[in-house]
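Form 7-S
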Amino acid sequence: MAAVFCWFAVLLVVTCAVLRFTRRKTLACWLLVVFPSALCVGLFLDLAHGAQRLGQASYSSDLRTLPYVVGFLIVTLVAALRPRWVWVFWISWVFSAFICTVVVFLTYFWKVFS
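Output:
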C-alpha cells in the first residue's frame, strides 16, 4: 500500500509542476490540494482507531503531526484559491516534493519498512 501511495504522490506532484507551466494553472493549483487532503484523511482515519488499537506512542505522534498537516492543507488551499499568487503555489509545491522525497526514502530505502 505504501508503494501505491508513493507513486501516486510523485506523479501528482510532477503533474502539478507540468500543468503550472501550461495554460492550466488553476487545475495545477487545485490538483496540488489532493496530496495534503489525502494525508489529512489518512491521519484522521488513523486517529479514529484510538489509542487502544494503535498504541499510545503512535496515537500521540499522530496528534502531534495533525497541526502540521492541517497547516499544509491550508497553504495549498490558499494557493488554489489564489492561482495568480505564483509564490504560494511554489512554496506548497516544494513542500509537497520534500514530503514525496521522504515517502520514497521510507518506502524503498529504509530497511524497517521493506
